[in-house]
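Can't paste images in this forum, so I'm doing it all in text. The chain is below; anyone willing to post the predicted structure tokens underneath?
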Amino acid sequence: NLGMPNVDWTMMVRWLIIGVLITSSSVGLFLLLRIYRTRKDPVVVAYERLCAKLAKIGISREPTEGPLDFLQRVETIQPALGAQVRPLIDAYIALRYAAPRPPTSAASGETSAPSSASGLRQFIAAIRRLRVVKE
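Text version of the structure:
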């Protein structure tokens, strides 16, 4: 009787359904958390921070607007700010859309990772230093 008094087939079906629901909910929750826990590309996070700074002064990026179109609009609205933002957007394009370098061999002694990592650090630091003021 599995430790349950007066067990009939309807009681067993109820417990089976409860067990299946608990198990499938647990697996579904695990998969859902795993999907949402994936980290964004740090280059994209930094670019979104730049866009948020510009949005605070009224220059918000449209959802369908690419970085160059956004830069052009910033330069049209505030030319001085556009001059400050141009190197940042150029760095974003270089970091985000550059073709990945092939892996290098240990014999040659060259590595491509430090230059991209230092470029990313410089890009993030430049965005943090940027101060935008509405004209």
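DSSP finds five helices and no strands in the chain. The two ends are 80 Å apart (CA to CA).
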